[in-house]
Structures
1.
Amino acid sequence: MPTTAATYTITLYYQNKPNAAGKVPLGLKYYFDGKQDAISLGKSIRPKDLLNGKVRSSAEDAALVNELIRSRVELLDDAAGSLEVPTWNKVKPLYLRLVARQEEEEKKQAFNQKKRSELIAQFRTMPTLEQQKLYRRAMELGIEAEVPPITQEQRDTITALHWSGVPVIGSAADRAALDAAAAENKLFKEQLQVYLDGLEHTNRKLWQVKKSWAKVLFEFETLREHPLTFSGMNAKFYNAYETFLFEDKDYYNNTFSNHVGWLKAFLSFCEKQEIRVNGYYKHFKVRWSS
């Protein structure tokens, strides 16, 4: 397969000398500026099982090994493609960070898989309130789709509960708080769509940029389980957003500052539409590199 950019190339390779089991280690070769480097994939195959950059379907664990090859090539390509001068000494540590992050996510998924049958068994025997509590636990594990179906009303209630942190279900005050939180989150998303629609018709290039920014913002909301609301534009939100952009997205100062600046521009736009916004957003800091 090679994956090729303007200045670097990534190819699959295997070492020539087989081990005692007749297998050879797989790895990736990275070519840049006339230099060649390599990194192991941690898997070995029989040489005859490799065909056109993939493992033959008849080979042992072919699907798993082919998925490993695909994902590692993609991560190495992402690492190299994010650098202005993708020398190996810069690409390799970035690639290893991406691999570690992916492996951590795979471990989390494996943990969720182990918990799935236990959650389903518990859910089927519990009354409604206990089901709701269990559903919240399932959401925290990221496996809500695997829990047996509940009503849409229950799902909406627990989703709002999960986001708002309200500890009790049932009272009129609690229901009002949940309804308000859900309504404000909906308003935020509706206004963001209005904002983007306006840019699409006036500045399409800027619309494309801010459409990508909004996608990352929604990714933050989902992964960090932090609802987007105008009243929630406070220090707690900023700290969580800052951590997400630097650690989860691995952004540098200028990219981070662009995302914060675009958020502030959107919130300022909303204020001009007479929407009440937490004024703390004006204190969100940017970090331009000199």
2.
Amino acid sequence: MARAITDISDLPPHFRAVRYRDLAAQALGYADRATTATMRDSYVLLAEHWCKLAEGIEADAARQAESPPYPSDIRVKPAACDDDPGHRH
């Protein structure tokens, strides 16, 4: 049985992108079997959009991997680095 589209959003980004590419491949398969040019064009368009979704997810994941999880101008001073020399842990 095919997975519901709503189930895809629960997947990690990499697996979501893979699933979107699978859907694109299925759409192209339907395009190959389409009985009219309009249907074929519609399936090809669907495939293109599934691929764009996959590419967008991969691009977002790459950007998140490159950027720190917090702004780089925030500096947190650990308690062990207190300025008070009399303060020992």
